[in-house]
From TrEMBL:
Belongs to the intimin/invasin family. InterPro entries: Big_1_dom (IPR003344), Ig-like_fold (IPR013783), Invasin/intimin_cell_adhesion (IPR008964), Invasin_dom_3 (IPR015217). Signal peptide: none annotated. This is Ig domain-containing protein. It holds the Pfam family Invasin_D3. It comes from the Bacteria. Residues 1-87, 97-188 form the Big-1 domain.
Amino acid sequence: MANPPVIEANGSDTSQIMLYLRDSNNNPVTGQNVTFDSTLGTVGAEGDNGNIYFATLTAGTVAGTATITANVDGSPFNITPATVILNGDSGDLSTAHSTLLAAPLNIEANGSDTSELTLTLRDGNNNPVTGQTVTFDTSLGSVGTPTESGNGVYTASLTAGTVSGAATITVNVGRSPFNIPPVTVTLSPGVIDIMNSVLTVSTDSINADDRTGALITFLARDAHNNSIPALGITFTTDLVDSQITNMSHSDAGYTANIDGTKVGVANISVQSSGTEIAGLTETVTITPGAWNQAQEPPVVAITQPIGECFQIPSGIFQRKIVLLDSTIIYDNYGNETTGNITMTMFAGNALTTNSSTITFSALPNHIMNTGITNRIVLHNDNFSTEALCNANGVTQTNVTLNIVNLRDSFGTYPIGLTLMLGTGS
């Protein structure tokens, strides 16, 4: 027999080996030359006490099962051998010989996926170390209770939480940190969830001159609100002559710019690896750019109204002396736009059907919108009927107008155009 039956292979632990020698009648047999052999470690300090023969097994540095046999007077004694288990040295744990592994190394952060963690614990002589209290710590997810499967192998399951990222797993042996290099398990986000994903534009309106345009931002997130990188995201627009530029992505999301040269509404969609993600759209309205100052013909034309009268809201009639036709204006890409024109009408006169001459005062800083016909009337007229007004209608107006500038939402542009009716002012 051997006591204790388990020691550590540390080069110093011992186990007492004892043989109780009896004859076939169960009588004690004394005075024999008894020796012991062992397959591991060394046997020494042999002695006896009556029929009890003993020795000391001293562990070596190789773990395993030591099988001890006895020899009596130089001949093998075929008694059942004693065994002593030599475990690895728990006082000399080796990070160089031990291993920490995880499989698989990538799981989904869905609250249920698992990865198997395995610590193979060995001492400085590369012997497996059994019977230790081993725990695993993780920076993400959770780790179950470890089990020892024998031969110094300890396993536990890492269960993913719902936060994506890198789970760093470390080990404790006997409640003390075991400084083996940590193992990392990637907790990947799940598939795109449109309820948590966000598509935005920096502005819902840009003009046709804006080559930077609006910034498109897409934050791809899964059902647990984790960001999803590397999805092959692209943006599309359905508006003619609009374009998506500067596509890029980072951990923060996916970005691009949209601009265009034709007015309209651009519907922006998101594609992942060429497939549109349903339910994610944004719009950007493209408005006209600045007025094209090279536009022809001139922005204002002047004509003579012949015998025309105009009824004002009070019900009286007044004679028209000038008609101003403002053309529709366009931006540099042919989009129709709007503005207003500032002009000055100098003092002048008008001839009537009854050969009388009427003078009128200057009209400074008169403003009219583009794309309309503007009438200038004699504000002192007070005809009660249109017939009476026509009977005294204007046949010729002599006046000069100076078209000062045109103003749109982008700026004011000097024009300096002089127009005359008749002999001018």
